[in-house]
C-alpha cells in the first residue's frame, strides 16, 4: 500500500487549521483533519491525479480536498509526501515552497 507522509511544514499547516477551526468547534476541527487524512490516503493510490504546479516547484502537485484545503505534495514510487496543506482561498506563491 502506498505511503503518505506529512512534511513538517504540512504538519504545522494542519495544526494551524485545526486550531483556527477549533475556536468554534472541536468536532468540526477533528472532522476536517480526518477528511484531509483520508483524501491523502486515496491520493497516494493515484498520485498523478493532482494538477502539476511547476510555477511553485517542478515536482509539486496540488489536490483540492472536500474540506476546503488544498494538498500540495510530491509523488514518489512509495506514495506521496504532503508538503503544504493550505486553505483553497489562500494566495499561493513559490515562496511557500
Strand element count: 5
What form results from the Cα inertia axes? globular
Structural domain count? 1
Oligomerization category of the chains in this entry: single chain
Assigned CATH class: Alpha Beta
| CATH architecture classification name | 2-Layer Sandwich
Low-confidence stretches: none
What structural class results from the helix and strand content? alpha+beta
Strand-residue proportion: 25-35%
CATH superfamily: RelE-like
What radius of gyration results from the CA coordinates? Answer: 13 Å
Number of contiguous helices: 2
First-last Cα distance? 27 Å
- Spatial sequence of strands, sheet with the most strands: 1-5-4-3-2
| Elements, N to C (H/E) | EHHEEEE
Structure description:
- By secondary structure, the protein is of the alpha+beta class.
- It contains two helices and five strands; from the N terminus they run βααββββ.
- It has helices spanning 8-22, 26-45, and strands at 3-6, 51-52, 60-64, 69-76, 79-87.
- The chain has a five-stranded mixed β-sheet.
- The model has no long low-confidence stretch (mean pLDDT 95).
Key words describing this protein structure:
5-stranded mixed β-sheet; alpha+beta; globular; single chain; YaeB-like fold; 5 strands; 97 residues
Amino acid at each position: 500500500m502506498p505511503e503518505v507522509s506529512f512534511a513538517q511544514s504540512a504538519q504545522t499547516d494542519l495544526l494551524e487549521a485545526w486550531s483556527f477551526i477549533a475556536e468554534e468547534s472541536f468536532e468540526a476541527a477533528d472532522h476536517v483533519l480526518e477528511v484531509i487524512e483520508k483524501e491523502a490516503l486515496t491520493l497516494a493510490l493515484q498520485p498523478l491525479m493532482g494538477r502539476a504546479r511547476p510555477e511553485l516547484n517542478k515536482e509539486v502537485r496540488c489536490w483540492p480536498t472536500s474540506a476546503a484545503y488544498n494538498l500540495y505534495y510530491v509523488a514518489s514510487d512509495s506514495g506521496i509526501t504532503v508538503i503544504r496543506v493550505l486553505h483553497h482561498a489562500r494566495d499561493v506563491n513559490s515562496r511557500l515552497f
